[in-house]
Amino acid sequence: MSDLPIPGSVYLVDVAHSSHHQHASGKKESVVLSPVPSRDVNDPLNWSRSRKMLAQFCLLVYTMTAGIGGSALYSVITPISQETGISVSVLNAGTGYMFLHAGWLANKVLQGFFVTPSESLIEVSITDLFFAHERGLYISIYALTLFGSNFVGPLIAGFIYEAQGWKWVMYWSSIISMIGFAFCFIFMEETNYVRGTTEANEHEEVSGSAAVPATDDDMKKTENTSAVVASVRSADDSLPALEGTPHTFLRRMLFFNKKYMSLSTCATMAYRPLILLRSGLMYGTCLVIFNILNATASIILSAPPYNFKASSVGLMYLGPIIGVILGSLYSGWFGDKFSLWFARRRKGVRESEDRLWLMSFCCVLCPTALILWGVGAAKEAPWAALAVGFAMSSMSTGIGSSLALGYVLDSYKDLSGETMMSVILVRNSLSFAIGYTFPPGTNEVRLANSN
Predict the structure, then answer these.
(1) pLDDT band at 13 (very low <50, low <70, confident <90, very high)
(2) Average pLDDT value for the chain
(3) At what angle do helices 132-164 and 334-345 cross, to 10 degrees?
(4) Nearest to 203 by CA among 13, 444, 425, 386
(5) Is pLDDT of 382 > 80?
(6) What is the pTM of this model?
């Protein structure tokens, strides 16, 4: 147990049934709760299940509305280019400031300011609400919503364009965003909570109170010993009642109700993300794949031999929606089970790197998807082949992003705010580079070589 303070190493499964720390309930009664919940009734880890689900739903509503507003134009880029005279490459690069005079540039600046929290603070809030053995599932649901919204936006935009014109694509995006804002304004709660401990300190205590992990022979002897299990249950059942007075609804809805850190801590948080830049590389690489297909979807499908109208281009995003759902199930639901299984093999210790084994599937999925899309379009393959490639790429994106976020948050849970700043900095830098350079590159390089 001496190596537990390594970032991401957690004594997660009580294989010897000897730890007196609080355990999960039901079928996961051998799982040690991490972080260790306080006895404060207002601790988000102690919230009721329904209250946690409402908080999670608010996070997803914000993510969904932000994603739809930011991606709705993908399927109608070519028609907008034809009607306005602005080239597709300029629109994709986000530098079309002459479009609607200065309105396009102002739109992108404001959009970046209000949408960025959906890619940084949501993950931090999830770690505030859920324990380590639950985190993967809810991170994958978030990733599903984040990327799924980016596929739903272009899907509905194609039909809006054909019925009402391209300006109404923006109007409806604004309407959806306002509905999401109103819902979150009423129901979203602050999840930040100062524990006064770190994950490493907590599990130093766990390792000190838990017996040395049992050998295989010991596990066989204690596996069916009901007395040991009963003692663990009684330890949990004897926990004192939660302390404090629950906050009123109005108190929960306050914008500012507490100072969470000192000025010196704020100064430290300003430079510490620079040390963690490497953490965003895996996530950014996954997003590059997503951006390549979004940047070329309207260009490829609106041109011969496909000649898709805007609504048909939008319908092509049904494949990615299915793909990202499957990817999220694989990385989230299955990923949590895989992590617990791996921890049991390691006598109860979970390493943050355990989830990365699941990334091996992407080594096959990603290049196959890009070949189907790029080479398929260059060889004028049937649209169904491109749809399969599109779906496979989104599945790869969902898997890669969920596992990357889960790995980063498991490794640096106590630095989740700064870590996510680093991840988004790298991710968005790669995204900008692809968005700015890739569309013009397709004019000079064959699609097969570009992908």
Answers:
(1) confident
(2) 76
(3) 160
(4) 13
(5) yes
(6) 0.74
pLDDT band at 215 (very low <50, low <70, confident <90, very high): very low
Distance CA 193, CA 245 (A): 15
How large is the angle between the packed helices 121-129 and 49-71, nearest 10 degrees?
Answer: 170
What is the per-residue pLDDT for 119? 77
User: What 3 state SS string does the chain have?
Assistant: CCCCCCCCCEECECCCCCCCCCECCHHHCCEECCCCCCCECCCHHHCCHHHHHHHHHHHHHHHHHHHHHHHHHHHHHHHHHHHHCCCHHHHHHCCCCCCCCCHHHHHHHHHHHHHHHHHCHHHHHHHHHCCHHHHHHHHHHHHHHHHHHHHHHHHHHHHHHHHHCHHHHHHHHHHHHHHHHHHHHHHCCCCCCCCCCCHHHHHHHHHHHCCCCCCHHHHHHHCCCHHHHHHHHHHHHCCCCCECCCCCHHHHCCCCCCCCCCHHHHHHHHHHHHHHHHHHHHHHHHHHHHHHHHHHHHHHHCCCCCCCCHHHHHHCCHHHHHHHHHHHHHHHHHHHHHHHHHHHHCCCEECHHHHHHHHHHHHHHHHHHHHHHHHHHHCCCCHHHHHHHHHHHHHHHHHHHHHHHHHHHHHCHHHHHHHHHHHHHHHHHHHHHHHHHHHHHHHHCCHHHHC
The answer to whether the beta carbons of residues 308 and 316 sit under 8 Å apart is yes
CA atoms within 13 A on the CB side of 28: 17
Token pair 């900008």: residue = 432
349: which strand partners? Answer: 11
The larger pLDDT score, comparing residue 267 to residue 368, is at: 368
Range in 21-25, 283-287, 357-361 the model is least confident about? 21-25
User: d(Cα 115, Cα 286) in Å, to the nearest integer?
Assistant: 19
